[in-house]
Amino acid sequence: MLLSAQPKIIKGTVTDTGSSKISSADITIYNLKNELIKTLKTDQNGYFSVEGISDDSIKIAIKKTDYAPFEKMVDLQKEKELLKIILKKETQEIEAVVMTKQKPVVTRKVDRLEFNVENSNVSSLNAWEILKKTPNVTINNDVIAIKGGTGILVTINDKKVMLTGDELKNFLENTQGDEIKSVEVITNPPAKYEASGSAVLNIIMKKNKIEGYRGIVSSKYVQTQYAKGVLGVSQYYKKDKLSLMGSYYRGFGTYYREGTDFVNYQESQTRWVSTMNRKDKNNAQNTLNFNAEYEIDSLTNLSLNYSGYFGPKSFGTYVVPTLIYNSQNIAESDYTTINDHQSRTINNSLSFQIDRKLNKKSNLSWINYFTGNNVDKYQNVLTHLNFAGETPREDNFFTRNKADVKLYSTQADYQWKDKKLEVESGMKYSFVKTTSGLDFSDNESGIMQLRPEKSSLFDYKEHNFAVYSSLAYNLGKWNFKGGLRAEMTDLEGVVSEPYERNKNKYWNLFPTFYAQYTTESKHEFGFSYGKRISRPSYSWLNPAKSYYNLFSYYQGDPKLKATIIHNLNLTYSWKGWNLDMYYRKEIYPSMEISYQEPSTNSLIYYFTNIEKGQAFGASLYKSFQIKPWWTLILSENLEHNENYFKGTDGLLYKNKVWNWVSNVSTAVTLDKSNDWKMEVGHKYYSPGIQGTFTISSAWSAYFVMNRKFFNKKLEASFIVNDIFRTMGQKISTKYANQDNYFLDYGDTQGFTLSLKFNFGNQAVKNAKTIKKTDEQDRL
């Protein structure tokens, strides 16, 4: 009797049918009266131990998500050995959960729209192509716009990408979609984000949640006019508190673009027609990513991230014939330009972040990052001239343009949050230094020599200091959020030839406000306002003339003003319907425009500020689940856009248009067990404007098919873009004595075949329960 009354101990292990240990399983112990005695969880090795049981017999119940519930009566007088409990998978329930609780493709939040890429058809694409399919985002002529507004700030995990133009496109094309979790479209970014850019596109990368080691080997073949390809490997490792991720992708191939320029000079009654088919090779586009996270304890987390893009050599030779027609439409003169060129691009970004929980409601984070971007471009231009009434001759010049940008930034953020109230506050300091040099040499004197008067050195420095605070409040059906950000900018730009120094220092306040109301039947109504600033890219500030040929060049402006933008949005969401009505006002927007100079017969492209721009419109997005295996996606944007600019004659002109962008696609699941999916889609762009430019309409049809093989270890996708080769556009300028246009086709028609093989541990295991530290016990 005394032995029977002594406290007893029960020990055991919990595994699955494959002998894998199950951690964090919920264990409940009852007496014979079905009264609860103890509750506990298994440890990281699936082990459990219970002491102090006075009953002779008990009932033990074990529950774990994705496993069938387990119950057993245990006689503690007889059961002396270690209990070995095996849980079985509940296959049918898992499938039901996947079907009923799958995350929606688009989620509306109080301050942003989230496009979930993970586990969708588009995850087989690269980041550039994914942005084209993101709601409210359009990419036309390689310019990213959100609801018609350009000057978009692109961030990855809230860290600014220090690339623009072709470099940004190349970087995103070599960022694989299967590493992307979601894309956030933030029309009115909260005060936490820097105020630069008319809107923010934040690409959120996946975090490694799988214990052990796994890897992915991938390849991609792209056939347009010429072949291109990407090979890569990604590796992941997670053990206890340490998580590592590294990837390397190498792209190579030939890039092609067709264009024809038409310039009509009223003064001389001539028409200049140039045909340029640009063909460039780049056999070493290297993209690297590395991320390390370490959990010092349950309160403190460290992370280190590196990303790099190396394009050591892009090269090509353009042969550009130009015919000059007189008033009788007879070609009386001509010249041919041979442009031999190459370029090198290097971009390195390094960031270090530390996150610390201060108590149960608040945390502090500190992040530092450094970015270096280096571009070196060289061109040798030979021109054969055959003008009427002149002796045929040759002209030769070469240029070397080097640009080096360095950015350092440090930011501290504090957050306090409970069920209804959230407070954020922080500060940021950043410093940018850019140096751009142009060396120009020609054979004007009969021999090739440097021309200092046509060469230039441009130095630019910018200090930016910011403080912000925001408050969010959840009042039942209402969600409110408001913030204020103050930024001080101190800049200096120095041009060597001719010497010019521009210095400016200013403060700006950027308020934001959001309100969202949700009815009982889940109708969501939202309102938001935000003030933004779009600072010109550093290359736009460089006044050096970058010559395309003898009669055409590009030039920046060191006196470019920052653009102030006001965004106003009204939103409505219900059962997957997302409607966004908006108004946008831009003060001194900066953009690239062209003008022709009759005295020198030159066509000049340059960045400048126009007087103002404004637009209003509506965006609609809906995903229809017609059948469990059939989805239809509708994305529409209609806006009225106006640009006001001063012409070369000093008069104020107005360019306006109703612009419609339509994207309709449908996806079908052919075989659920093998994730065999097919998608076809269509995108239409009606005529648009950009400053002095009028842009013609265009449309494109595409086809996508994805399938998995060999127990889903091998993934294959086949994509056909611009099926009918309909993405060519006409960009024209016509006012006063300006009459020019060019036809542009970006080699978009083609197909892509992608293969990806997964190896190592691909099964997501339950996160281990980390023992609380003394500090966390006091929270």
Automatic annotation (TrEMBL):
Keyword Ion transport among record annotations: no
Highest taxon listed in the record's lineage: Bacteria
InterPro entries, per the entry: Beta-barrel_TonB_sf, CarboxyPept-like_regulatory, OMP_b-brl_3
SUPFAM superfamilies: Carboxypeptidase regulatory domain-like, Porins
Cellular localisation: Cell outer membrane
Keywords: Cell outer membrane, Membrane, Receptor
Pfam families (alphabetical): CarbopepD_reg_2, OMP_b-brl_3
GO cellular component terms listed in the entry, alphabetical order: cell outer membrane
Domain Outer membrane protein beta-barrel residues, every copy: 359-756
Name of this chain's protein: Outer membrane receptor proteins, mostly Fe transport
Organism: Chryseobacterium oleae
Lineage: Bacteria, Pseudomonadati, Bacteroidota, Flavobacteriia, Flavobacteriales
